[in-house]
Amino acid sequence: YQRRVTWGWKHHRKMTELEEAVPRELDDQSLERFASYEDYLDSQITSTDLYYLEDEDLARQLVELGYRGKGEVLSREEFQARKEAAEQAQRAKLQNVPKVLASANKDLTQHPLLSALADREELVRNGKLTTIIFIRDRNSKGQEISGYIDYANRLKTENFEPYFEKKKRFLPKATDLSFYNWETQTSTANDSPNFQVIADHEAGLLFKNKRDRKVVNVDPKADPGDNTKRLEIKTHEYIQVVLWDHMTRRKS
Question: What is the pTM of this model?
């Protein structure tokens, strides 16, 4: 008798807490609180059940078979399916939460390039706009470099707050669409998730948008292409800066 009382009291507080925490009618969202099916079964067991049965595994089996529990009890398969559905819904909800822009609340009035990038950040992140950036300037070693940058790809792969906070200079890299070091004569060309680099013998350097297959022509004397606008940025911070804004339209 003493063993029964001691064992029952040990589980009494645990089960009372579970009973208070778990609603009688569980929805898919409330299932997320259970790490396992066993935890879910435990929530259906009363302290009285444990007191008389003296066996937690037996109590779980009785609940699973429908002999104990509060209301309809889910099978292990139903529990897993509904729990996964709830977790997927939660992930989708989190993905739809607006992200704070890296340029938010930054004073960029004296920085024309950063201001232009800030104006485009949300559209580029949302995939409604792709922007190719041409920068010509000097690196930290004083060497003249130039390159074409896929803004969307850099936004996705880098933290842009240091750029917008003016703690770090925004310059082309050897991993961008195109890069050239005028002193070392090092050159690279790389496709990005958004653009295919095309070296045309007559037209020169071209970039084909992978989403709508339209070609962006960066030759200043040529038409930039369908749905593309060329904009030269006047700034004292760089030798030369040019943007090509391409409004993307997914093919149906």
Answer: 0.62
